[in-house]
Each structure stands twice: as C-alpha cells, then as structure tokens.
C-alpha cells in the first residue's frame, strides 16, 4: 500500500472566528499583527506619493495588473439584463462570480509566477471573495480585506518581495486598479453595502482608500482635510489622490447634496487640521472598526498561509457554512437587504452605470 501523495487533501481557508472570545484571541495574536503590519507597511509606502508617481514596475506588478484586466473583461462579459429595474443587487453578478471562480486557479497559475501549486486553491479563495458575496450580492470592507489578504499571501510565499518600488506599486498601481474594477462591479451590478452603518459609517463599501489616501496627502503643502468640501478641488485632484477620488464618487451617487447630511463621519474628520493626524486616526479606526468587529471578522478565512490563532473555534465538520453567526447591530449582514445608494442614484437619473467608467466608491 503506497502512501498518499502530499497535498492530496487540500484544505481551503475557512472561517474560525465564530465567537466574541475568538475575536479577542485573534486581536492578541501574531496573525492579527501580521495582517495589520502588512496594511501599515502599505500605508507607509503610500505616504506623500500621488497616484501618478513614477515607479519602476516589476514583472509581478504587471502580472497582477493583467489579472485585474481579465476580471474587468469578465464583468463586461456578464452585463445585467436591464439598466434600471430594482433597488437591490442584480443577479448577473453571480454569473460573473461563478465564471471568475471557475477560472481563478488556472489564471493564477498562468499569470502569477512562482506560486507553489498546492497553495493556488488557498490563494484563489481570497481572490474570489475580493469581489463581494455571491449569495447576498453585497460588498463591504471585509471583502476589501480579502484582496489585501490575497496580496499578503503572495508576500508570505515570497512571490512578492517588499523591496524597491514594489510596496508603493502595490498601493498606487495594484490597489488603485482593484478599487477601479471594484467600483465597476458595484455600479454595474448595484451591489448592496455589506453591514452598512448608514450615514454613521465611514463609507458604504471601502475603508482603505481613505487610509492610504490620507497617507498620500500627509505631506501635501496646500491641501487640507477641509478641502473635501470644495467640489472644484475634489474634481481636480480625484485622479491623483485616493481620498479625493472616494469623495468624488460619493458626491456622484448620494442624492442628498452635502457631505454633512449623507456622510457626517467624513464631515467630522474634515475638521482635523492635518492629514497626518487623519491618517493616524484611520489606522486606529481600521484596527477597531474592521479587524476588531465580529460581524466583519466572522467571515474571515484562515488557512496554511494566514493561520488561525491557537485557541479559536475549531473548523466546522462541513467547512464553515453551518457555523454560528453573529449579525451586525446595524443591519442583518446576511438577510435584510440594504438598498444601494448607487442603485438609488441610477434609478433617479435613469443612468446605466454598468457602461460608465466610474471610480470606486469608498
């Protein structure tokens, strides 16, 4: 009788943070330090650098950008049946999701060099969840975290080496492109916000463009946090700075005229005197409001690359779908539909956002 070949029974990453105690263990773990440390490293790499900073792109950056182009091509392949029909997510998103999921392992093997073959299914899981939830047709900061985790896996496997311009390129080229593709998906399929805090959230969908965007502006001599209220400045600098890009998108989809009404948290933050202070606050806020929130982290997956901390709940017998689940205090993150502001704007203006090249909404 021969031994089973190595990696015959591959374990996909699965949920392990199922209780408040699990979250507490995670927050004190080396895995939390690994994830937050990577995000902090990217934040530092973006400091003082606009989107058009001249960078020397490595082959792996070109490969990642090519992969994101393929994702957008698949989005174009699965347009919604009609432009204006419902306030809620369009089911054609599932066609796009299934198409990408079926191709993801082969795409990674073909386009991203040096990924060990036995790790491709694990990395694919993070990449597939980067585009939103197939069942609920929604998207939130947890899905955004999956994309960062996809990049972190590549770093942990030494496919990405954080030297030279590469860390900055990951933010200014790869992440910026990801957000642009993601905005295309959000506007085209009218993705619902996952667990939105309504007007008291930072943003319906994203967090990191505000973190990295405030880092970009931390050394700017003239622009101030209060500049987000000047629409001419926002329009002028949206292509250069992620923070202004996010504000520009919010202005385009919110039906209420002023940030003071539809985004009071961003309005409050605009009162801070220095971008460096905004950035410091964003780092603390990310740790508390994303990595520190059970309704978000209960969906996070752990595997052999990003390992579950010792002491958290064991894997479920069937994976994680039958595991205990905690719902968001603000919205039932798995049941009650939260209409998309994008959908409301499109219905009011009779616009087909699927065919417009809009920049990501944070």
Automatic annotation (TrEMBL):
GO CC entries: cytoplasm; nucleus; protein phosphatase type 2A complex
Organism of origin: Magnusiomyces paraingens
Role this protein plays: PPIases accelerate the folding of proteins. It catalyzes the cis-trans isomerization of proline imidic peptide bonds in oligopeptides.
Listed PANTHER family: SERINE/THREONINE-PROTEIN PHOSPHATASE 2A REGULATORY SUBUNIT B (PTHR10012), SERINE_THREONINE-PROTEIN PHOSPHATASE 2A ACTIVATOR 2 (PTHR10012:SF5)
Subcellular location(s) of the protein: Cytoplasm
InterPro entries noted in UniProt: Phstyr_phstse_ac (IPR004327), PTPA_C_lid (IPR043170), PTPA_sf (IPR037218)
Designated name of the protein: Serine/threonine-protein phosphatase 2A activator
Annotated SUPFAM superfamilies: PTPA-like
Swiss-Prot/TrEMBL GO biological process terms: mitotic spindle organization
Pfam families: PTPA
